[in-house]
Amino acid sequence: MKPSASPILYHIYVRSFYDSNGDGIGDLQGIIEKLDYFDWLGVDGILLSPVFESPLSDFGYDITSLRGLNTEYGDMATFTKLVAEAKNRGLSVMLDFVANHTSSKHPWFIESSASATSAKADWYIWAPAKNDGTPPNNWLTIFGESAWRWHPTRGQYYLHNTLSNQPDLNYRNPDVVRELNKSVRFWLDTGVSGLRLDSVNLFLHDDKLRNNPPRHLGWQDDARTDPYRYQSQRYNISRPENIHLLKQLRGIADGYDDKKWLLGSLSDPSPYAVIDRYTSESDALDAANVFESLSLCHSVGQVGEQLDDFMKSVHPGIGCWSTGNHDIARTVSRWQDANNQPEAAKLLLTMLMSLQGVISLFQGEELGLPEADVPPSLRRDLFGKQVIANYVGRDGCRTPMPWLSEAENLGFSASPPWLPADPTHSEYAIDKQQQDESSVLHFTRALLYWRKQHVAMQHGACRVLAYNQTLMVLERHHEEQTLIIALNASNNEATVRLNLPSDAKSLSLPHMADAVPENHGVLKLLPWQAWVGELVRS
Ligand code: NOJ
């Protein structure tokens, strides 16, 4: 994989992908049994959600061993078999690697929290209360609560930049860095193509624990409802010293003959500047995705703003783009006017596949799968529900993959699954869509193939030429080829003036009605229609 080649990674939420042993939980063997599916679809690799030992209060982002597998998913032999079989098919395997924090049930944290003189006392970030008993400083988590939690046994506060049962490790301690390096090598030695480092900009914090200064925003914002935005996160996240740690990991990754990939996932109010620093400026990471980015967008207008911001950067970084993931409502259900329509799913997939960098396609997006309706009594993401106000949790995008429309549990498992399969997903099932040439699934497959045929889509630089709330025009340019992509993300017909040269030629997008620009580049697009044109060089 090369960053400029825009590889497509299929993001697997392991627990809900396919259950091979009938315990209601997706597993590694299940992925092995479905490898043909990835061949058929035409993706370049798979990215596995965290597979490490975990008490699962945050479904794998709370780990109790960085070198142990969650046995519900399988053993090491199955893991290495998966990596080898994927490789035989030319598929890369990437792991979502959670190293910023551990679970509070990790033996290291238990030891660290027992006393300030324990051998692992400094493996986490501990600090005494202020005189009035309040936390050591004003740092907040992205959820707006204090990033410090009192530990009664130790009699001190510990830092948690994400959830309160996920204490941040102390990477100023060389013993902890040694453990990290050991774990990185352990997984890279298994033959995986690389790691996606979760919360990659949170690893190091200010050693003096200085207070973050306020951020002054417009009058319309309310510090009481969104306190995090009212702080400039100068001292707790995206610290300059973080780069040294990442570069050291880069050194490890580069030590392998098949130069391993390091991706990152980050969250920062100015995310693109951080991506620049971590990718193009320092080369520490091959690409990075931003949590705040497209996964939080509801309209192409918002996507246009994000891309504009991204491209304005000093050294435009290398992005890893996705419209859906395991933390956010399904794309076709949250997008403005999309209302779960297949035509909207196709247009939004076209938008995603038109971007430059690494593309991460979340499982089910290739089906146009809508957000599942999980009855309150069966919801499992209690944590998400607890920390985010007025939020039902993240279960709706994590339900089992619908493999067979008529089978029990939609063919995911022989037993009742850990989260119920949504009966309305039966009409989106893979078997059904594979038989229907006009389905979203066939469209996705054809689109991936089409993308590979166009050098500008694979290697070209990307620019946003214009956008409003529902329309966006992109350009992809690579040496000999310039493509213009116009996207109408609405239920209405739209007219776009493209200012095209007279010899511009329309290319047919697979499985989508052709639009033809009239004189002077006036293009009429049907609802949810895309057009791609090629500028011919004279
Ligand atoms: C990012 C993950 O995507 C999310 O699922 C998790 O809750 C947070 N990290 C906290 O670890």
Task: Return the average pLDDT rounded to an integer.
Answer: 93
Uncertain runs: none
Q: Compute the separation of the termini in Å.
A: 33 Å
Total count of helical runs of at least 4 residues: 14
Largest sheet: 8 strands, parallel
CATH topology of the largest domain: TIM Barrel
Overall shape: it is globular
Radius of gyration: 23 Å
CATH architecture heading of the largest domain: Alpha-Beta Barrel
GO molecular function: alpha-amylase activity
Protein name: Maltodextrin glucosidase
Family: Belongs to the glycosyl hydrolase 13 family.
InterPro entries: GH, GH13_cat_dom, Glyco_hydro_b, O16G_dom_2
Describe this structure in words.
The mean pLDDT is 93. The longest helix is centred in the middle third of the chain and has 15 residues, at 174-188. Helix 6 (242-254) links the parallel strand 9 and strand 10 (261-266). An eight-stranded parallel sheet has the order 11-10-9-5-2-1-13-12, covered by helices on one side. A five-stranded antiparallel sheet has the order 14-15-16-20-18. It has a three-stranded antiparallel sheet with strand order 6-8-7, with no helix packed on it. The protein is α/β, with parallel strands linked by helices. Helix content is 24%, strand content 17%. It has two domains: 8-102 and 195-203 and 238-251 and 264-452, TIM Barrel; 460-535, Golgi alpha-mannosidase II (Immunoglobulin-like). The protein has helices at 28-33, 35-41, 76-88, 107-114, 174-188, 242-254, 271-281, 300-311, 331-334, 342-353, 382-387, 430-434, 440-452, 455-459; strands at 8-12, 45-48, 52-53, 65-69, 92-97, 126-127, 148-151, 156-159, 194-197, 261-266, 287-290, 320-321, 358-362, 461-467, 471-478, 481-488, 494-497, 505-507, 522-525, 530-535. Helix 5 runs parallel beside helix 6 (242-254) and helix 10 (342-353) runs parallel beside helix 13. The structure holds 1-deoxynojirimycin. 1-deoxynojirimycin (NOJ) is lined by residues 58, 61, 162-163, 166, 198-199, 326-327. Keywords: Glycosidase, Hydrolase. InterPro entries: GH, GH13_cat_dom, Glyco_hydro_b, O16G_dom_2. Belongs to the glycosyl hydrolase 13 family. GO terms for molecular function: alpha-amylase activity. This is Maltodextrin glucosidase.
